[in-house]
Amino acid sequence: MNQFIKSNKLWLSLLGLAVVIVFLGFLFRPKTFDFKVNADEAVKLMNEPQMTVSINDIAGKQLIDIRPAELFAQGHPKNAINIPVRNLLDDESLELFDRLSDNGQAAVLYGSDELQATAPWLLLQQLGYQNIKIMKGGYTPNNEFKEPVLSSTEAMGLDTATMKAKPMLTEISKTEKKKPQVVIPVRKEVSSGGGC
Amino acid sequence: MIVLALGLVVLPKKKEMKETDPKVLLSAITEKSRFLSVDLVTHRIIENDPTLLLIDLRPVNEFKAFALPGAINIQPDSILSASTLELLNQPGKDKVLYANSDLTAEKAWLLGTRYSVYRLYIMKGGLNEWYNTIIKPGDASLAASSADLDLSNFRNAARQYFTGAGQAPQEQTTKKTPEKVNIIRKAPEAASGGGC
User: Is the ipTM of this complex over 0.85?
Assistant: First the structure.
């Protein structure tokens, strides 16, 4: 045994060093995110009305503007912080979210419209930032918050009576196609009359 | 052995469903290609595109009143059920989510993408946008270029496809009537042949 160790001393040392490096690398690997919310809880978040904040209910809440920096520079509400969507998971952003969460302060995410903020909000919710809510509506180029128009909500704007016209049309077209088949026997009657 | 034992302790547990990394998910949120226009979806419906799978996320009663041809009704709270995920993971299919607006589809898209559903899209604007763009008559005078005119013509044709509205079907019936006359004219020829 001792002879084996002595003869392979160099290789065994390198192997031991490699194991240590891999282990240390695993311990000090870059920080990864884990979802704090499982699938069932995430589905429940989809229909959580308490997470939506109306324009009249933003007092005392930290506004987070996720629009591009250029739009933010053109105008924004007082005390709003600009964090463009692609920077939401940067270290600085996460430090801010952690600080707000630790202080028990609610934050409101908003964009140009509600759609722009929906996916980022739901992502942050699943990462455990339950104090971050979403604005109902968005911030317009006129530098004001605006509630969504009806067609941008989940209210149905479809006139189903209009759409029911299609089955009627197919019935009509079927009867029209049958008419030539009725005419063809008439031609046979005439030919039989001439067969003397 | 100690190192290996420690490694087993530190290793993450195997997850039941494959999850997308949150940073990758955030990057996917910023991709505009995840939205399909109502014109494109309409075109693919009319062409009977076999790779198109429409997922209607509206309530059952609204789905029964009207749904896009070939759409499957899935309630948002079952978007991550085993049967739904099996449906969404069909290879070779573009899964297009829609509800009345974008909001529900956006949330469903995020959850589906978190659980690694590929080729998942949203019909931009939802069924309300589809109805306002395709079904409601547009102003043809707004067509400034040939491309606009082509789009306008396409929407008019699509409107007829879905509703039967317009004068084209009536014109077809009047054109068919003279064809019957041509068939009847053959009768006298047969009679003259028989007078030999």
Answer: no
